[in-house]
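Researcher: We plan to redesign the surface later, but first we want a full-length starting point. Tokens attached.
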């Protein structure tokens, strides 16, 4: 088996994500302590975010010392080969902080810049979502398929919000227009879990501004392998400016509605 084999990389990612999830459950106190903030005072980091990433990095280095790693908490480590690991040690930290169930350990694996394997361990629910490029998306031995043939006005749409006030102003304006045009809106609080929810047919679509690569690397592959289209606006790839995910047909309807609202902007400072 070649060193870059997606199935081998997936197997290792599954083991590491499972171990990190077990550690987080075992060590999570009744109310984890905030040790730092990022983009705003409400964008928090706990000690267990860092401990989870440290564990994941240590396991990757032990098994594959030449690989590169990009993690949310500790940044980028250069590697010597073709493989890079994209790590979110806790996606949905605010949910983790408050004891809400929508958070996950997310690990995606690139070969030559393309995600070929992904694992999202939705720890509180005990669900391990997986995918390999061209190999489908899976949960508990069942292949996942996103919902198809759902028009926008009957679609259950997941979304998320940023932490900076100027961005939230615009996001509120956007959701106020989207809400009357769809079945309903869901806000779970984890990009990785939302993408897996599209893959599993628990929601019909998802959009959000402000996600980072580690948020959507694994979940985006899982959704795509379940038949969803994943991208940004106007033909751009998914990125910090916008992530949109839904089955073909609904994707285009949701995309066109969002594009008409100019959502890739922030309100003027002080508004």
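Model: Full-length starting sequence:
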């Amino acid at each position: 088996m070649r060193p870059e084999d997606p199935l081998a990389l997936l197997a290792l990612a599954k083991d590491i994500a499972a171990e990190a999830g077990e550690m987080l459950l075992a060590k999570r106190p009744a109310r984890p302590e905030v040790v730092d903030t990022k983009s705003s005072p409400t964008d928090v980091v706990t000690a267990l975010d860092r401990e989870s990433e440290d564990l994941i990095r240590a396991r990757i280095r032990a098994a594959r010392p030449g690989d590169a790693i990009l993690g949310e908490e500790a940044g980028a480590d250069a590697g010597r080969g073709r493989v890079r690991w994209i790590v979110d040690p806790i996606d949905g930290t605010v949910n983790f902080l408050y004891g809400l169930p929508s958070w996950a350990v997310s690990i995606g694996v690139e070969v030559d810049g393309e995600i070929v394997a992904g694992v999202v361990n939705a720890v509180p629910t005990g669900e391990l979502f997986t995918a390999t490029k061209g190999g489908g998306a899976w949960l508990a031995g069942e292949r996942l398929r996103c919902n198809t043939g759902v028009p926008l006005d009957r679609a259950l749409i997941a979304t998320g919000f940023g932490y900076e006030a100027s961005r939230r102003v615009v996001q509120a304006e956007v959701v106020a227009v989207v809400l009357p045009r769809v079945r309903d809106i869901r806000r779970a609080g984890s990009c990785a879990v939302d993408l897996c929810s599209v893959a599993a047919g628990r929601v019909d679509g998802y959009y959000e501004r402000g996600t980072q690569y580690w948020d959507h690397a694994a979940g985006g592959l899982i959704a795509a392998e379940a038949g969803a289209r994943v991208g940004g606006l106007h033909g751009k790839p998914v990125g910090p400016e916008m992530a949109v995910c839904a089955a073909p047909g609904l994707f285009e309807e949701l995309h066109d509605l969002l594009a008409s609202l100019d959502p890739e902007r922030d309100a003027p400072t002080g508004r």
